């Protein structure tokens, strides 16, 4: 069997003709396998969805209980038969419930990484290496310039700023799924035990993380009126980046704007957003993470998607590994 007989790119996304399913399709399809709950991968309207329990729950929270005609939960490491194909879900280390999807038939194994990171994250299961004949990898940060710093060092920078400017509320832009909960967990691991204030858009997902055993400590609403701006002096306030340009942000005393994202390594992006404290905190593999993964898994072939495809394809070529860009459309990189 040739790889393109098992998985092939189509306008709707990666399609498996043998098993008659799509992986992370960008439009409604009869059967979808979903790697994780970010909106650029987990869209509503499919006839049937197979994903981890957490991803299905997150899709329900974000899109409603009737987001698909039917759903089936897959456990990590479990093998499931779909037609003439065996599939399995393995931890991706990206966000809670995120998975790499293994597809096997006719002696051929393809691994679809979805979004992933190799570093430790107290808010989700760690990435698991899964050898494969063909590796389909993301490349969100697929340029050699992207080398992410130690997350603990970025949290230390935030804590140092709080100590330096105790009169200012520190407003940290975070995406609602994954980044918010990871930042909170990292703050707790660093010994920060004060209440953390969260925008209402983060509340349901933070509550869900706690229901799955991810301890986030005391959280309080940053949306309710607390009387005076001084009530938030020296506080950590988390919210979606879009809220910082709205009237909501005006309630805080001389706010210091921070943003947690791998893209904060690009200083021009920080300046464009008016970010005073850029925190380089990514939930994707950086360049060394991408190349180390390919070297470790030693696939016979690499397909690159969702990001800076050309540089990683060239790196593979120089390493003697056949590689191709997939150039799939419809991914908006919500996770960063």
TrEMBL record:
GO terms for molecular function: exonuclease activity; ligase activity. It comes from Paralimibaculum aggregatum. It comes from the Bacteria. SUPFAM superfamilies: Metallo-hydrolase/oxidoreductase (SSF56281). This is Ligase-associated DNA damage response exonuclease. The keyword Ligase applies. The keyword Mitochondrion does not apply. InterPro entries: MBL, RibonucZ/Hydroxyglut_hydro, Xnuc_lig_assoc.
């Amino acid at each position: 069997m040739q790889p393109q007989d098992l998985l092939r790119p189509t306008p709707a996304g990666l399609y498996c003709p043998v098993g008659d399913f799509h992986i992370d399709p960008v439009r409604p399809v009869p059967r979808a396998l979903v790697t994780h709950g970010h909106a650029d991968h987990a869209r509503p309207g499919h006839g049937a969805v197979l994903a981890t329990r957490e991803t299905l729950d997150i899709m329900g929270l974000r899109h409603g209980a009737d987001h698909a005609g039917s759903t089936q939960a897959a456990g990590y490491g479990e093998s499931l038969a779909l037609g003439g194909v065996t599939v399995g879900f393995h931890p991706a280390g990206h966000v809670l419930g995120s998975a790499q999807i293994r597809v096997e038939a006719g002696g051929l194994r393809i691994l679809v990484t979805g979004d992933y990171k190799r570093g430790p994250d107290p808010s989700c299961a760690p990435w698991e290496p899964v050898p494969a004949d063909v590796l389909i990898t993301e490349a969100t940060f697929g340029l050699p310039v992207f080398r992410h710093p130690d997350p603990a060092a970025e949290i230390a920078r935030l804590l140092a700023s709080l100590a330096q400017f105790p009169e200012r509320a520190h407003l940290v832009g975070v995406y609602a799924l994954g980044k918010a909960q990871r930042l909170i967990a990292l703050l707790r691991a660093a010994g920060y035990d004060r209440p953390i204030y969260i925008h209402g858009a983060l509340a349901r997902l933070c509550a869900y993380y706690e229901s799955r055993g991810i301890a986030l400590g005391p959280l309080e609403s940053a949306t309710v009126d607390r009387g005076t701006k001084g009530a938030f002096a020296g506080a950590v306030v988390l919210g979606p980046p879009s809220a910082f340009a709205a009237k909501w942000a005006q309630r805080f005393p001389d706010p210091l704007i921070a943003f947690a994202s791998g893209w904060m390594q690009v200083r021009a992006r920080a300046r464009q957003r008016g970010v005073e404290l850029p925190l380089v905190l990514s939930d994707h593999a950086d360049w060394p993470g991408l190349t180390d993964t390919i070297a470790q898994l030693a696939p016979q072939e690499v397909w690159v998607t969702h990001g800076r495809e050309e540089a990683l394809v060239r790196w593979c070529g120089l390493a003697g590994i056949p590689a191709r860009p997939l150039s799939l459309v419809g991914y908006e990189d919500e996770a960063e």
